[in-house]
Amino acid sequence: MAVEESTMIDEVYSQVTDPKLVRERRSQIVAAAVKLFSEEGYYRTTIQKIAREARVSPGLIYQYVKDKDDVLYLSLKDIMDSYCHEIPLAQAGIGDPVARLEASVRAYCKVVDQRKTATVLAYRTSALLPQQRREAVKAMELKSNQLLSECISQGIEAGYFSPELNIEIATYQCVMFCHTWALKYWRLKAYCNLDQYLQQGLPSLLNALLSAAGRDHYDRLITT
Amino acid sequence: MAVEESTMIDEVYSQVTDPKLVRERRSQIVAAAVKLFSEEGYYRTTIQKIAREARVSPGLIYQYVKDKDDVLYLSLKDIMDSYCHEIPLAQAGIGDPVARLEASVRAYCKVVDQRKTATVLAYRTSALLPQQRREAVKAMELKSNQLLSECISQGIEAGYFSPELNIEIATYQCVMFCHTWALKYWRLKAYCNLDQYLQQGLPSLLNALLSAAGRDHYDRLITT
DNA sequence: TGCGGTTAAATGAACAACCATTCATCATAT
DNA sequence: ATATGATGAATGGTTGTTCATTTAACCGCA
Fold it and tell me: Nearest CA to the C1' of C8 belongs to which residue?
């Protein structure tokens, strides 16, 4: 007598129970999905196309997710996770809040640069998810934001950043500086590369946050 | 014997020839479409729903556009046009490049604020259009950008803005400051209103562009 | 080692729902 | 009368999802 098995893994229903296999197959599916969603959009991308691209059968996908929305959810999660993975790597070993924020923004821009179309995909498709999933994606965005906002808070406490800063606004000034590189790449690519973009944008971004004392501190940082 | 009539109006095919009627009906259709596209996304919004919302029959829509893509195109055009309409109104009578840029950004933010979901819609759906339409939308974006970049160029010539500025980057710093208000409103609304957003963001935005001489000039501007 | 027996995983053809678009028909104004 | 504008039911193509079936892996036992 067969026993019906099933699990939730990463909040997503799966018929298959072996966690290692689920991770493997899903990342195979997600890789194909992110590529096709980015190229053709969510609705034009059929499950059949994703299956073909991932070299599996359409039916297999439904062993690992409940529906097509779940594929999108896992795709966006994959993108957000790459932010949350890369930024802390860049922060490691940097204690000074100003230097830490600068390193974080650089790292953020670098992931965005490596995953430009995926970053744009997140803007295009988050709203297509059902309420609950959308909330989860927002929560992931906030988690990556926090990696920056922590630096800003610490910078304020240290007197380097202006004390009357609204931290949420300041955080989004940084986040959007990074995202803009992907969102407006279609235009900017004709005028600068990532290094030049950082070179012009980063100093003024930090300047927007720094206090008078912080400016001195920052000048000392970049000349050593 | 019936004579087949037809016209192109705003690059969009219409069976109906009377330009005034076309303008009226289309704006009726577009109003409904922008609302529904924003709420439910492009693909979930059926022509039937748009027709119901606009209080016309589904068939009528096809008297005024070739296909559903055209409805989206006209919707995005409507949004872009509102930028291109409002910004020049704010610029009228302001000669000083710095003051002119500030007024432009304020006006831009204000339209974005009034049409938040529409602004987000443009980000979500531009890529769904066929190549040629997408190019046209890009061209409209550039046209509104130009309203800002002209101020920046003039400001550089006048010595108020830093001469080594990359104008494209600088323009997008301004544009994205405005768009961010819509794109991240879901979060920012809990922390500030538009005035506070402008109060914190505008000075540092301008500071990013100003030269030393420009800073003096700007200080004089805001104290009078 | 080899061999039934059992379960998990994978397949892909078929189905049912959905929706953009058409068109035969009707209304209206000139 | 005639041409233009409006209607909305019908259609044809598309695609998410299911499920009957096949394949493969594993296990206990002789």
Answer: A16
